[in-house]
């Protein structure tokens, strides 16, 4: 049984765009009518949970892996971020949240340790330079 509509082109004046009209098959229109029987109509409502947004921190982890990779913490955070994204794509929200939490902690650790190393290095260079100028 074919339930498709057919489009026919009706010719109009030469200067105007063509006029399209839809003509339904006869069996499609004739099948409509009131519901049979006097049974009450029952409806079913399904509450679908909204998609839970789980941040996977991939960009932050990639930044830490490339620029602030203190003791490979940025690389490990990137691995956990990818695992979190994989779990999210599969639909395992709990697993995605666990991996994302670990990646977040590793990213914070990598950031703090890298900033401390930069500050310590700057202080050490300033101390060495200032001590060298006093001796001469």
Automatic annotation (TrEMBL):
<dbReference type="GO" id="GO:0046597">
    <property type="term" value="P:host-mediated suppression of symbiont invasion"/>
</dbReference>
<comment type="similarity">
    <text>Belongs to the CD225/Dispanin family.</text>
</comment>
<feature type="transmembrane region" description="Helical">
    <location>
        <begin position="110"/>
        <end position="134"/>
    </location>
</feature>
<dbReference type="InterPro" id="IPR051517">
    <property type="entry name" value="IFITM_antiviral_protein"/>
</dbReference>
<dbReference type="GO" id="GO:0035455">
    <property type="term" value="P:response to interferon-alpha"/>
</dbReference>
<dbReference type="GO" id="GO:0051607">
    <property type="term" value="P:defense response to virus"/>
</dbReference>
<dbReference type="GO" id="GO:0045071">
    <property type="term" value="P:negative regulation of viral genome replication"/>
</dbReference>
<dbReference type="GO" id="GO:0034341">
    <property type="term" value="P:response to type II interferon"/>
</dbReference>
<dbReference type="Pfam" id="PF04505">
    <property type="entry name" value="CD225"/>
</dbReference>
<feature type="compositionally biased region" description="Polar residues">
    <location>
        <begin position="1"/>
        <end position="13"/>
    </location>
</feature>
<feature type="region of interest" description="Disordered">
    <location>
        <begin position="1"/>
        <end position="20"/>
    </location>
</feature>
<feature type="transmembrane region" description="Helical">
    <location>
        <begin position="58"/>
        <end position="80"/>
    </location>
</feature>
<dbReference type="GO" id="GO:0005886">
    <property type="term" value="C:plasma membrane"/>
</dbReference>
<keyword id="KW-1133">Transmembrane helix</keyword>
<protein>
    <submittedName>
        <fullName>Interferon induced transmembrane protein 3</fullName>
    </submittedName>
</protein>
<keyword id="KW-0449">Lipoprotein</keyword>
<dbReference type="GO" id="GO:0060337">
    <property type="term" value="P:type I interferon-mediated signaling pathway"/>
</dbReference>
<keyword id="KW-0564">Palmitate</keyword>
<dbReference type="GO" id="GO:0035456">
    <property type="term" value="P:response to interferon-beta"/>
</dbReference>
<keyword id="KW-0472">Membrane</keyword>
<dbReference type="InterPro" id="IPR007593">
    <property type="entry name" value="CD225/Dispanin_fam"/>
</dbReference>
<keyword id="KW-0812">Transmembrane</keyword>
């Amino acid at each position: 049984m074919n339930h498709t509509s057919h489009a026919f082109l009706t010719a109009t004046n030469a200067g105007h765009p063509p006029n399209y009209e839809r003509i339904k098959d006869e069996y499609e229109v004739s099948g409509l009518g009131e519901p049979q029987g006097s049974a009450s109509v029952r409806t079913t409502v399904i509450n679908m949970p909204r998609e839970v947004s789980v941040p996977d921190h991939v960009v932050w982890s990639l930044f830490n892996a490339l620029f602030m990779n203190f003791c490979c913490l940025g690389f490990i955070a990137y691995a956990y971020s990818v695992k979190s994204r994989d779990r999210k794509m599969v639909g395992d929200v709990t697993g995605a949240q666990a991996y994302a939490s670990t990646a977040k902690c590793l990213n914070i650790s990598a950031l703090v340790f890298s900033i401390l190393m930069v500050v310590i290095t700057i202080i050490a260079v300033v101390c060495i330079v200032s001590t060298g100028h006093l001796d001469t």
